[in-house]
């Protein structure tokens, strides 16, 4: 518990501050636009999900709350199809757990290996998310 408070908690607080400041500065719209080819084009999700996926790394356990904030509703069935909900949940489940975990990886393996592991996990999650979308769509599973 002491290690969590000393190592993870400051990173989580800093992450929340970054999210808040990015919203105040209007940067979230720019992030959505930049990520649109991935979120909309490859993953078949609304553009707002891009911000959720990036900032969800800061606090993965609050990804759904951030998604509700970005979409303007907690009733996801109003704005997402069952396929989109599944793809979103799958991608979030596979990608980097949280910034605190990345911090632990840095401490254990160093910056380069931690960055490499994180990039591979995010890339794998996005790649598999797009594949899952296409498999579900082609075979009309959901």
Write the layout of secondary structure elements.
Elements: H1 2-25, H2 27-42, H3 48-56, H4 63-71, H5 82-94, H6 99-109, H7 111-139
Give structural attributes:
globular; 142 residues; mainly alpha
Report what the structure shows.
This protein is mainly α and 142 residues long. It has one domain (2-139). The protein has seven helices and no strands. The longest helix has 29 residues, at 111-139. The N and C termini lie far apart (41 Å).
Average pLDDT, rounded to a whole number, is: 88
Q: Are there runs of 5+ residues with pLDDT below 50, and where? A: none
The total count of helices amounts to: 7
Radius of gyration: 16 Å
Q: Helicity, in percent?
A: over 70%
- Kindly name the structural category: mainly alpha
Characterize the overall form.
Answer: globular
Strand content: under 5%
What is the number of beta strands? 0
- How would you sum up the major sheet? none
The tally of domains stands at 1
Terminus-to-terminus distance: 41 Å
Q: What order do the helices and strands follow?
A: HHHHHHH
Question: Could you provide a short overview of the structure?
Answer:
This protein has 142 residues and is mainly α.
């Amino acid at each position: 518990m002491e290690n969590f408070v000393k190592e993870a908690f400051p990173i989580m607080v800093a992450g929340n501050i970054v999210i808040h400041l990015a919203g105040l500065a209007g940067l979230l719209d720019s992030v959505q636009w930049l990520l649109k080819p991935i979120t909309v084009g490859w993953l078949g999700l609304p553009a707002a999900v891009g911000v959720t996926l990036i900032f969800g790394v800061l606090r993965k356990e609050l990804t759904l709350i951030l998604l509700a904030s970005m979409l303007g509703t907690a009733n996801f069935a109003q704005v997402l199809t069952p396929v989109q909900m599944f793809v979103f949940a799958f991608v979030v489940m596979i990608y980097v757990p949280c910034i605190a975990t990345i911090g632990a990886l840095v401490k254990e393996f160093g910056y380069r290996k931690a960055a490499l592991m994180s990039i591979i996990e995010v890339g794998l999650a996005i790649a598999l998310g797009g594949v899952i979308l296409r498999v579900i769509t082609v075979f009309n599973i959901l």
